[in-house]
Structures are given as structure tokens and as C-alpha cells.
Amino acid sequence: MIDPTDFVMPDLPEVAPRWLMLLKEAVASVKGRGGVLQAAQRMGVSRPYVARVLMTGKNRIEHPSPKFIERVLAAFGQGRVDCPHLARDIALGQ
Fold first, then answer.
1. φ and ψ at residue 10, rounded to 5 degrees
2. How many Å apart are CA 27 and CA 48, to the nearest integer?
3. CA–CA–CA angle 51, 38, 25 (5° rounding)
4. pLDDT tens string 27-44
5. Calpha distance 81→52 (Å, rounded)
């Protein structure tokens, strides 16, 4: 007989937050090495902060401030935000 408490939870792929995907796309869209600088200037933050958010390793900023995330969404999100209740992005006015 199958015990209802025995179940296998499948390993779901880790999905990057929308703000991080937007930031990576903005940096990658610039030809050459100036993507981080242009993204930082557009958001009004320092280039090293953006670089540390995107890097891997011990000096990485794992959890950037909510203000930084707001700036990423404002600069590159085109007025859309993530809605945790609907599990999708919606217009800022909604």
C-alpha cells in the first residue's frame, strides 16, 4: 500500500528573479566591455555595485537592497513588476 506521506519532490530548476534577468540582458546588450557601466549610469548607481551583484564568488552581493531592485525594474522593466500572488508580471498600475 502507498503511504500518503511518502512522496518524491522533483528537483525544480532554480529560476533567477526577473530583476536579475533584466539586469543581465541590459549588460549583455552592449557591445564590448561597457555594459556594466552603461547599466549603472542608467540606474543611477555605482559601477562596482552592479558588478558585484552580477559576479560569482565570495565578494558577490547575494541580496541587493530593495531600492536597487526597484531601480533595475524602473530602468529596464518597462513599468512592470512581479506579482507574487498571480505568479506573473503585471503593469505597475495594476
1. -70, 150
2. 13
3. 70
4. 998 887 889 999 999 999
5. 23
